[in-house]
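Got a spare moment? Tell me how you read both lines of this record:
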Amino acid sequence: MYAIIQIAGKQFKVKPGMVLNVPTLDAEPGKKVNVERVLAYSDGTSLEVGTPVLTNVDIDGTVVAHGRAKKIIVFKKKRRKGYQKKQGHRQGFTQIKVEGIAPAKPAAKKTVAKADAEVKTAKPAAKKPAAKKAPAAKKPAVKKAAAKPAAKKGE
């Protein structure tokens, strides 16, 4: 069983019990997280793909910790110009443990019988016969006269 989810513009393949690092979220360690954007879900026998998301799948997780990734060195240089620039960057992340993946329970359908009854009792308005329009008269095509050949010099 697995699902493909989207968090902060990045996609992850998750399985129950898996711990993954996602871009930093505003949640304290120990808090529950519910993923709203589920793109695909497989129970092992069939695969459901959303258009663009699935609304009938719930993915629950717990925030384990916050941290920062390994430092990345950004080095810029322009040859023969004496320009060099060295920068470091550490991207923040949130560790999430996936507690479970389950199809959501279908929502209870609301009764709309009263509204349907009112629609059925109302009679449609009588239509007025549409007046026929006469087709527009075509304009006669204008033919251009053939151009005369230019006179030669000396004649």
